[in-house]
Design brief:
The protein starts with a strand and ends in a 6-residue tail after the last helix. The protein is built from 15 helices and 23 strands. The strands form six sheets. It has a seven-stranded mixed β-sheet with strand order 16-17-18-15-14-19-20, with helices on both faces. α9 (about 275-290) packs across α10 (about 310-320). β9 (about 150-155), α5 and β10 form a beta-alpha-beta unit. The chain is of the alpha/beta class. The protein folds into two domains: about 40-255 and about 480-510, 3-Layer(aba) Sandwich (Aldehyde Dehydrogenase, Chain A, domain 1), CATH 3.40.605.10; about 260-475, Aldehyde Dehydrogenase, Chain A, domain 2 (3-Layer(aba) Sandwich). The radius of gyration is 24 Å and the shape is globular.
């Protein structure tokens, strides 16, 4: 039995008390267990602040970028081993496992590239300076400096590698030490990556700590210079946001939560158009990749009423052809959900949606031929009423989506989409730019990202479910109200913007943007 350890205050700690089991979601075999009981979380926070923080801030941005590049390479060296762990503990197909692991190393490498251009200063200029007085002698300049606390990262179970890697990349480049707490069901992969990070010796002591198990009273020890980045359910996010210590001390917090992402098919798109094939392919990929356990997966599919039957038939054909089974088998097109509790939640969600529509394929029942494991079939439901509350009230975090017929008018598409209450990403498919523009501008205030597809981008664009480090990730309302990544925008959460005012000859020359060449 593998017992996961926490890496805290410079040593590996084996938890005491009752340990929580981690399962193979395909066979339901117990793979490992973990507990963080016995960890002194106050000591963890102080170790990051007093040891890790000064060590990171003791070098500049370019040097920290070099650390990220080395971390990416160290993790990549173990790629095949990590893929195998992801298949066993996460129920991922090899392609899904690569998606997670390569996302982590790719984001670390991207931030290494962003950071190497920043030089070795201890601050970042934030825009141009401005004259404040009667003459230019009295000058103002905004700059960003690293916060003097720790970054607590509470990560979701669905992307144990990528979720940790993307948060680490921004925090470490900004100069903040991290405390990583993975989602427990898939923590075996995150723990192995933590071992690789520690063994690499790339980061200074205290810059990286790892919690295997519960977070205990960790949040009670945070203060005004610390920050928390959380990815997970809106229910848990709301609970964390209302934590007394975080409120009393104004601890900075970023939440990425539920998202009823929409795919909107334009009325001009015909069955032979390239963008139609792109639409069908992206919807099916988002529904089935990682068994639909992606925060960016499509949950609502808006289709013009006069195209409904054709589109539903095409989607059912593609979804029904996907074999559900052991993710280690090459012929399996989709693996299991990550845990027994996930299976129960998804089945309950499918049953709720089935009450307001017709099940075109799949359903909440067991999958034929699979007696063990947390399997559910790809499920497509056609809503009787596109405005039904159930469709817009709850995210079913699995391979399930609801087709919503609409009039074809841009205003109707906007009204239905925005009923989701805020999303991470919405995708729009049309060759009519005027129609697309109306939809994009109508839904933009409620989304962190809008993906626009047309014949000219077919085969050239990554699917809307892919989170790229160059663009922001997050969204308003239901999606948590947070924002991550976005190239150097990702550093803003971990730095303090300060307005400097003084003599231009010193303030402007020292802290202003440096001219090229």
């Amino acid at each position: 039995m593998q017992r996961l350890q926490s890496y805290v205050y410079g040593t590996w700690h084996t938890g005491t008390g009752e340990h929580r089991p981690l399962y193979d979601p395909t066979t339901e075999e117990v793979l490992a267990e973990c507990s963080s009981e016995g960890v002194d979380f106050g000591k963890v926070v102080n170790h990051g602040r007093e040891v890790g923080g000064p060590a990171l801030r003791g070098v500049g941005f370019a040097a920290r970028a070099g650390m990220l590049k080395a971390l990416s390479a160290a993790i990549h060296e173990h790629r095949e081993e990590l893929i195998d762990l992801s298949v066993r503990n996460g129920g991922n197909r090899r392609g899904d496992a690569k998606f997670d692991i390569d996302g982590a190393t790719g984001t670390l490498a991207a931030y290494a590239s962003f950071g190497k251009r920043l030089g070795d200063e201890a601050f970042l200029p934030d825009g141009d300076g401005v004259q404040l007085g009667r003459t230019a002698r009295f000058w103002g300049q905004h700059v960003r400096v690293p916060r003097r606390g720790v970054a607590v990262h509470i990560n979701a179970f669905n992307f144990p590698a990528w979720g940790m890697g993307e948060k680490m990349a921004c925090a470490l480049l900004a100069g903040m030490p991290v405390i990583e707490k993975p989602g427990t069901p898939s923590a075996l992969l995150a723990w192995r990556i933590a071992q690789i990070i520690v063994e690499s010796g790339v980061l200074p002591e205290g810059a990286f700590q790892f919690i295997a198990g519960g977070a205990g009273d960790l949040l009670d020890h945070l203060g005004a210079q610390d920050c928390v980045a959380f990815t997970g359910s809106s229910k848990t996010g709301s609970m964390l946001k209302g934590h007394r210590a975080l409120l009393d001390r104004n601890v900075r917090m970023n939440i990425e939560a539920d998202s009823l992402n929409a795919a909107i098919l334009g009325p001009d798109v015909g069955s032979g158009d390239e963008v139609m094939n792109e639409f069908l392919g992206n919807v099916v990929t988002d529904m089935t990749q990682k068994a639909g356990q992606k925060c960016t997966a499509v949950r609502r599919i808006l289709v013009p009423s006069d195209r409904l039957d054709d589109v539903v038939s095409a989607l059912v054909d593609r979804l029904s052809a996907i074999k559900v089974g052991d993710p280690g088998n090459d012929d399996s097109g989709m693996g299991p959900l990550a845990s027994k509790s996930q299976l129960a939640d998804v089945r309950a969600g499918i049953e709720r949606l089935a009450k307001v529509g017709k099940t075109a394929c799949g359903g909440a029942g067991s999958v034929d031929g699979l007696e063990k494991g947390y399997f559910v079939a790809p499920t497509l439901i056609v809503a009787d009423d596109p405005h039904a509350d159930a469709v817009h009230a709850d995210e079913v975090f699995g391979p399930c989506a609801t087709v919503l017929p609409y009039s074809g008018e841009a205003a109707d598409a906007v009204a239905i989409t925005n009923r989701g209450g805020g999303g991470l990403v919405a995708s729009v498919y049309s060759n009519d730019w005027n129609w697309s523009q109306d939809v994009v501008l109508g839904i933009a205030p409620w989304h962190g990202r809008v993906w626009i597809g047309a014949d000219k981008t077919a085969g050239q664009a990554m699917a809307p479910g892919v989170v790229l480090p160059h663009m922001v990730h997050g969204g308003p309302g239901r999606a948590g109200g947070g924002e991550e990544l976005g190239a150097l925008r990702g550093l803003e959460f971990y730095t303090q913007r300060v307005a400097l005012q003084g003599y231009q000859g010193t303030v402007g020359r020292t802290f202003g943007p440096k001219s090229e060449g």
